[in-house]
């Protein structure tokens, strides 16, 4: 599944725990300015910790072990489409349609926001299916 490593999104992380074939990895997702030397004086420099559930593929990992989390680049683009592009399109289509047929822009705006919320609700109900599509692999950094 992950044979072509040139088309991968990679993150370094630390193993939190492993249970059977599931490995939970903590990665630090840094903002673009986190490497700046002035970040101590700037309130916009931030980093977020994320917990990622990965597939071990029969390997065993120890708590605290440095690893690399891999996901196909294509899945990253699909995630952007689902999380940003499609809800934006839903809002714009609903807003455009309702603005022409309803006199109140405020009502049209509220309904468009409600449509985006409905989209995310549907996405939430599909989370089990999405977890099967969006799979992360983990590998030891010593094998790089």
Describe the structure.
This protein is α+β, with helices and mostly antiparallel strands and 144 residues long. The protein has one domain. The protein contains 3 helices and 5 strands. It has a 5-stranded antiparallel beta sheet. Strand 1 and strand 2 (22-30) form a beta hairpin. The radius of gyration is 20 Å and the shape is elongated. The two termini are 18 Å apart.
Give the key terms.
single chain, 144 residues, alpha+beta, five-stranded antiparallel β-sheet, 3 helices
Structural class: alpha+beta
Q: Helical residue percent?
A: 25-40%
* Run of helices and strands: EEEEHHHE
Distance between the termini: 18 Å
Number of strands: 5
How do you describe this structure in short?
The chain is α+β, with helices and mostly antiparallel strands and 144 residues long. It is built from 3 helices and 5 strands, in the order ββββαααβ.
Question: What layout of secondary structure does this protein have?
Answer:
Blueprint: E1 8-19, E2 22-30, E3 47-55, E4 66-72, H1 73-101, H2 105-125, H3 127-133, E5 137-140
Antiparallel strand pairs: 1-2, 1-4, 2-3, 4-5
Helix pairs in contact: 1-2
């Amino acid at each position: 599944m992950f044979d072509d490593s040139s088309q991968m999104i990679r993150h370094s992380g630390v193993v939190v725990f492993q249970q059977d074939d599931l490995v939970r990895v903590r990665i630090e997702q840094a903002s673009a300015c986190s490497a700046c030397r002035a970040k101590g004086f700037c309130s916009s420099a931030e980093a977020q910790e994320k917990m990622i559930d990965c597939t071990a593929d029969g390997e065993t990992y120890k708590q605290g072990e440095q690893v690399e989390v891999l996901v196909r680049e294509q899945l990253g683009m699909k995630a952007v489409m689902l999380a940003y592009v499609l809800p934006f399109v839903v809002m714009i289509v609903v807003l455009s349609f309702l603005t022409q047929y309803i006199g109140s822009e405020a009502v049209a705006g509220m309904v468009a926001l409600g449509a985006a919320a409905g989209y995310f609700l549907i996405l939430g109900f599909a989370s089990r299916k999405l977890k099967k599509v969006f799979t992360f692999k983990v590998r030891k950094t010593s094998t790089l």
